[in-house]
């Protein structure tokens, strides 16, 4: 049976017992991840899909993960890399199917063939582009500025915003909890606000609370664009689901998919597209060699995030333009 | 007669309540004249200004009328009790009751205490809601019924845009269209509606060109009484699965998403029938249903809670009601009965103008204004106390919040649920 057939069958028959977010007694892997999780909230907020969207560290360990027939990892680069570096081959007796965001398909080890597929969140093409309102959203965490400085980044977004009648910058303030202490002291969140005013002008409309913004604004026609086009921590953000459901038009970079895919609607305006992994131009070996050479024993998302070498490799292979 | 209308000047998060609030004010305006009404802001943050209360007292209003769904009058009355000292000022308190009444029973228990000895009237939106509220308020004679008004300037029979709207939805002029408008929520039973509609087509009971148009936005309410909170997108997935299970019938069912309120009348006039299989636990009324009736649509509804009031005594044929019974979880209706109700209504011819006129008589702002006039003239009674049942239920609510009706062993409904909600299923 092909991996896609497996995925199709599981999704068709999955009950709420097989969906992590329907359980009430779950625990994160550790307390620090819980802290990070809530810091990145609401991008980490739960949503429903039968393929069990969840973060790697929302499972205690691989036994926990293996309880579920299918796991759709919402993790970005650091979570996906940790998963495969620690498990370059599927653990013995591991029977689950794992879905990885297609952005990071190239770091899926070949040995996982038959156990993995990729997914993208995509528009259903029903909402037309509008220049009425542009919502730019995201957190001012360190990774946003890996590729370019806050000054250059916000200048780019300000340039895009010129094509819209109104722009709102939805930038909830968050610390960079994945960062080293030194980086945290840089206060990237404040830098984001400063550069927003510098690039957009002092009349820039800034909103710092996601829920309050949407509770007090009836956004009927809008386009949305994420500050985070790189997905270092979160690849499958709740922000996107919310904005699609609210009827927004996405300006985020879409990843093309093939023809032999599975598609499932998540709302009137968006869907998830699942396809088989292509192992062409696979990069896992390069990352694995780096891991082995480093001698690192207890790899974690925090160490990957703080590693200069992994950052360089990320920027080389995965960083994208807005 | 001079009255004070107490409500929040801000929009409610519950959209239908914003409309209801506006229309109730229009009804009072029509009844009493604007010059005899003072408006007092009682915000959703539970704040009311001392100056406003003093002004109200200085104006010597005859009646203080609460027309908003939240907050409950508790904070207002607490503040009022610290300010009002004159024995000469003895207004009547009138409270319009909304569907979220049971969610705030703890507060209503305190409201009962604050109102003891005062002249009080409760106004419920439907007959069955009245029966429900009677379980918590000991004096049945102080509870009246007046529907929430529909603005018939906005909702009336008018087919001028019918053809264009049908064309835009790819619906032929001869196609039979059943319409649902409202929240797309688990307890509204949309997946059952879609399933029953499809069964009718598959069995050949209705034409295979018939359409079911569903207007509204999905929510995540789930079933809070039984602690079944839905995740974002969960109910959409349930409905989408039902839609996708018969690909050949996909085009017979149209989900429009959210529509601007100003366009709703066009949708009612585009359709031939309004249908709702809702068994939402606090369906005190059904604003969408009232709007549909005033727009001239025959109604196919579950005989659940407030929907019962839409079967007009003089025109029972305009509304078909499907029996519902309480169960351990979702109230139950028989699918074959639902199909039979839809089929039999579709087989009949209706004069939409006459239907619109009949519903406007009762549910329009003018109609409700007359009803309010009758209620205001009723002899006021001094309020005594709440019922023992109120005490029993609120004791549960203090501990279990909105799972007060859930058994602590089986996660199904407990016996106080049946005692409270039996009147909704009769």
Question: Helical proportion of chain A?
Answer: 25-40%
Mean pLDDT of chain A: 92
Helix content of chain B: 25-40%
Number of helices of chain A: 12
Uncertain runs of chain B? none
Largest interface chains and counts: A-B, 21 and 15 residues
Strand pairing plus helix content of chain B: what structural class? alpha/beta
**What profile does the largest beta sheet of chain B have?**
7 strands, mixed
Number of strands of chain B: 13
**Overall form of chain B:** globular
Q: Give the neighbour order of strands across the main sheet of chain A.
A: 1-2-3-4-11-10
Give the structural class of chain A. alpha/beta
Largest sheet of chain A: 6 strands, mixed
- The proportion of residues in beta strands of chain A is 5-15%
Q: How far do the termini of chain A sit from each other?
A: 39 Å
- Strand tally of chain A is 11
- What coarse outline of chain A follows from CA principal-axis ratios? globular
> Looking at the chains present, what oligomeric state does this protein adopt?
heterodimer
Order of helices and strands of chain B: EHEHEHEHEHEHEHEHEHEHEEHHHEHH
């Amino acid at each position: 049976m092909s991996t896609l057939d497996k995925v199709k069958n599981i999704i068709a028959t999955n009950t709420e017992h097989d969906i992590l977010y329907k359980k009430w007694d779950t625990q994160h892997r550790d307390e620090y991840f819980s802290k990070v999780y809530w810091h990145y909230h609401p991008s980490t907020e739960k949503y429903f899909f039968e393929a069990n969207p969840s973060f790697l560290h929302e499972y205690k360990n691989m036994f926990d993960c293996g309880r579920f027939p299918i796991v759709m990892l919402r993790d970005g680069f650091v979570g996906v890399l940790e998963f495969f570096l620690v498990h370059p081959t599927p653990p013995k007796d591991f029977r689950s199917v794992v879905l990885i965001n297609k952005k990071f398909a190239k770091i899926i080890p070949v040995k996982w063939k038959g156990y993995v597929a990729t997914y993208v969140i995509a528009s259903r093409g029903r909402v037309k582009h509008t220049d009425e309102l542009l919502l730019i959203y995201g957190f001012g965490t360190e990774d946003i500025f890996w590729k370019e400085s806050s000054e250059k980044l916000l200048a780019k977004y300000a340039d895009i915003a010129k094509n819209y009648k109104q722009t709102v910058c939805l930038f909830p303030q968050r610390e960079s909890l994945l960062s080293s202490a030194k980086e945290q002291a840089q206060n990237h969140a404040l830098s984001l606000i400063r550069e927003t005013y510098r690039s957009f002008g002092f009349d820039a409309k800034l909103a710092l609370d996601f829920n309050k913004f949407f509770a007090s604004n009836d956004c009927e026609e809008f386009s949305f664009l994420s500050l985070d086009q790189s997905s270092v921590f979160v690849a499958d953000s709740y922000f996107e689901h919310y904005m699609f459901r609210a009827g927004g038009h996405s300006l985020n970079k879409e990843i093309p998919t093939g023809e032999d895919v599975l598609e499932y609607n998540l709302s009137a305006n968006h869907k998830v597209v699942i396809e088989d992994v292509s192992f062409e131009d696979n990069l896992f070996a390069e990352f694995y060699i780096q891991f082995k050479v480093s001698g690192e024993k207890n790899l974690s998302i925090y160490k990957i995030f703080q590693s200069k070498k992994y950052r360089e490799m990320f920027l080389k292979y995965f960083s994208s333009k807005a | 007669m001079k009255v004070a209308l107490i409500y929040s000047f801000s929009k409610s998060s519950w959209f239908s309540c914003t409309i209801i609030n506006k229309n109730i004010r229009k009804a009072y305006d029509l009844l009493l004249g604007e010059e005899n009404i003072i408006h007092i802001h009682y915000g959703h943050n539970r704040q009311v200004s001392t100056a406003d209360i003093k002004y109200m007292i200085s104006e010597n209003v005859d009646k203080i009328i609460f027309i908003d769904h939240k907050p409950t009058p508790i904070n207002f009355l607490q503040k009022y009790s610290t300010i009002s000292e004159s024995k000469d000022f003895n207004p009547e308190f009138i409270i319009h009751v909304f569907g979220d009444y049971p969610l705030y029973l703890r507060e209503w228990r305190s409201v009962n205490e604050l109102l003891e000895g005062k002249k009080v009237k409760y106004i419920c939106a439907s007959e069955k809601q009245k029966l429900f509220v009677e379980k918590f308020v000991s004096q049945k004679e102080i509870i009246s019924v007046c529907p929430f008004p529909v603005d018939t300037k906005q909702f009336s029979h008018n087919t001028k845009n019918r053809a264009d709207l049908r064309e835009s939805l790819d619906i032929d002029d001869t196609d039979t269209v059943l319409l649902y408008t409202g929240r797309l929520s688990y307890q509204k039973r949309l997946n059952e509606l879609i399933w029953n509609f499809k069964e009718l087509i598959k069995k050949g009971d209705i034409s295979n060109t018939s359409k079911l148009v569903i207007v509204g936005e999905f929510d995540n309410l789930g079933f809070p009484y039984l602690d079944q909170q839905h995740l974002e997108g969960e109910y959409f997935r349930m409905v989408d699965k039902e839609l996708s299970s018969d690909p050949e019938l996909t085009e017979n069912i149209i989900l429009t998403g959210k529509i601007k309120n100003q366009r709703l009348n066009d949708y009612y006039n585009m359709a031939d029938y309004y249908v709702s299989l809702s068994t939402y636990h606090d369906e005190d009324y059904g604003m969408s249903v009232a709007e549909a009736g005033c727009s001239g649509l025959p109604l196919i509804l579950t005989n659940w809670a407030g929907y019962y009031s839409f079967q007009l005594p003089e025109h029972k044929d305009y509304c078909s009601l499907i029996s519902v019974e309480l169960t351990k979880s979702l109230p139950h209706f028989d699918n074959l009965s639902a199909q039979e109700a839809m089929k039999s209504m579709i087989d009949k011819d209706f004069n939409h103008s006459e239907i619109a006129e009949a519903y406007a008589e009762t549910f329009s702002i003018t109609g409700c204004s007359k009803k309010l006039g009758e209620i205001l003239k009723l002899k006021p009674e001094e309020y005594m106390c709440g019922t023992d049942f109120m005490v029993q239920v609120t004791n549960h609510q203090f501990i279990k919040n909105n799972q007060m009706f859930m058994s602590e062993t089986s996660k199904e409904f407990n016996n106080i649920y049946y005692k409270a909600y039996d009147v909704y299923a009769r």
